[in-house]
Amino acid sequence: MSATDYNDLSRHIGHNVEVVSYADTNVAIECEECSEVLLDFDKEVECENHTWTLQMNLPNIPIRNYCEECGAIEEADPDDVLEQIRLLGENE
Description:
The chain is 20% helix and 33% strand. The protein is of the alpha+beta class. The chain folds into two domains: 1-44, no CATH class; 45-92, no CATH class.
């Protein structure tokens, strides 16, 4: 989230903003002119057995884990990312 105080948010006065959702688990207010997330919230989800998929190729979104079962999202562990990149290189 980029807007954490008055000064951050006031830079977007007069800009077009929109409310968008991601994978039905996150909703965000984004500045269309700056392509910045001004405010976002994750949906509270419960899933007994997450089936995580590492999402690496989403524009303007950091690498993250996504549960295919319930739509939960969490920050990806850097070691998991490195392992996935290593495995991808072995399969080429």
